[in-house]
Amino acid sequence: MNTNVQQRVVKVISEILNREESEIRLDTSLLNDLQASSLDQMSLFVALEDEFQSTMPPDEVTGLDTVKDIIEFIDRKLEQTIPT
After folding, report:
1. For residue 34, which of 25, 43, 45, 42 has the smallest C-alpha distance?
2. In DSSP terms, which residues pair with 66 in a beta bridge?
3. CATH for 35
């Protein structure tokens, strides 16, 4: 898992959901632990798109619940965009 991606994801979650970074762990659930509404989640993914300069269509992010899920998804997206 890319630590740079992890740090950036945690920072964005912290800013969008008004939480301390120390509250956000890999197993933290957006819905259950952070009580993120669907609007909060949409805002979060828009902010992550901006942060990583990558599109995240709703059908691809559906089901991403934990911070770890989001980081792994972004890692995969970034690997796809690296020219070979």
Report:
1. 25
2. 29
3. 1.10.1200.10
For every one of its 84 residues, what pLDDT tens digit does the chain have, with 9 covering 90 and above? 788 999 999 999 999 999 999 999 999 999 999 999 999 999 999 999 999 998 888 899 989 999 999 999 999 988 886 665
Structural domain total, the chain: 1
Structural domain of 19 = 3-79
d(CA 41, CA 64): 10
Structural element, H or E, at residue 48 = helix 38-52
Tell me whether residue 43 is in a domain.
Answer: yes
Q: Whole-model pTM above 0.85?
A: yes
Calpha distance 4→63 (Å, rounded): 23
Does residue 84 lie in a domain region?
A: no
